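Design request, tokens follow.
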């Protein structure tokens, strides 16, 4: 099915972006948000979110005019947002999503942009043909093509400024720059978790390095179990938001992590990275690290637990050599 291929002819006064549901996806949308703000400084940029964490994330973003939660604050969403008209709507999903397509239908935008194969192509005035292997950040930035901008300098991903606790501020003040390696033990991806023993073996195999351990709130007990027996691990306070995480990551020599949002947190400060991916070629391409210095290890199976510790240690040592 052919759709309109002519970009929007005038400067949009209002742009609506539907936000993906997870932190990593949201971080990969920030280059688009910043590029829109840079290109259209006087335009209103609205974000429609479908989860609380992403609503909070973009509510903290100074590049965004307003953020609306389409599932929880329905009164505000309907009366403050859906009753108005907008110039541009962008749905970034390249696969069918009832929620995204329903909201794309409800939002009264005169120029609706989507990716081909989104399941409801007749809703959109402009369909973008983006290969599946395209990096998520570039896929989001493809909206600029529909707006008539084919030559752009994309902005770096970023974490919006959020409150930082006194505990984290104290820890940051005492943490020397670029001397510690970070290990993130948490992941929201099925098959992304490694064992306490594997992380401990890695730490023991590098006695000359010092470490900081990151975890999601649900993995704090595992974090403490890894911190306590190792003299070369500095105990760190629990982080309360992604901005606190990014503030610590920014001070690291580099980060070791499974494929999760911290891969993209590292990209925000161009922190070097050792990233471990499940055997899923689509993910390791579309969600590849953006840090300039990186080592990527792909599991032979759909589980990162099947990456042996020797391979991780070798990747860490290669990155240490690059940084020497």
């Amino acid at each position: 099915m052919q759709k309109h291929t002519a970009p929007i002819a005038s400067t949009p006064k209002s742009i609506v972006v539907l936000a993906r549901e997870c932190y990593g996806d949201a971080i990969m949308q920030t280059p688009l948000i910043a590029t829109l703000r840079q290109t259209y400084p006087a335009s209103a940029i609205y974000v429609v979110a479908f989860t609380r964490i992403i609503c909070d994330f973009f509510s903290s973003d100074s590049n965004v005019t307003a953020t609306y939660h389409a599932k929880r604050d329905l009164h505000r969403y309907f009366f403050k947002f859906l009753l108005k008209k907008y110039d541009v709507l962008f749905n970034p999903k390249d696969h069918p999503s009832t929620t995204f397509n329903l909201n794309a239908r409800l939002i009264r935008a005169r120029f609706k942009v989507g990716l081909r194969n989104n399941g409801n192509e007749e809703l959109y005035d402009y369909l973008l043909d983006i290969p599946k292997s395209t990096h998520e950040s570039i896929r989001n930035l493809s909206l600029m093509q529909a707006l008539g901008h084919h030559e752009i300098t994309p902005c770096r991903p970023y974490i919006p400024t959020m409150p930082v606790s006194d505990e984290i501020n104290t820890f940051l003040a005492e943490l020397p720059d670029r001397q510690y390696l970070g290990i993130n033990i948490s992941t929201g991806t099925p098959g992304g978790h490694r064992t306490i023993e594997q992380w401990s073996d890695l730490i023991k195999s590098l006695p000359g390095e010092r470490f900081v351990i990151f975890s999601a709130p649900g993995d704090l007990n595992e974090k403490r179990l890894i911190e306590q027996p190792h003299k070369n691990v500095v105990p760190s306070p629990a982080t309360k938001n992604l901005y606190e995480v990014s503030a610590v990551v920014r001070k690291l020599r580099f980060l070791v992590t499974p494929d999760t949002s911290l891969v993209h947190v590292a990209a925000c400060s161009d922190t070097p990275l050792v990233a471990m991916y499940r055997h899923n070629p689509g993910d390791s391409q579309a969600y590849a690290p953006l840090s300039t210095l990186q080592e990527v290890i792909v599991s032979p199976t759909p589980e990162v637990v099947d990456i042996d510790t020797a391979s991780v240690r070798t990747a860490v040592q290669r990155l240490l050599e690059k940084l020497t």
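Comment from the thread starter after seeing the answer: thanks! Residues 14-146 form a domain with the Rossmann fold fold (CATH 3.40.50.2000).
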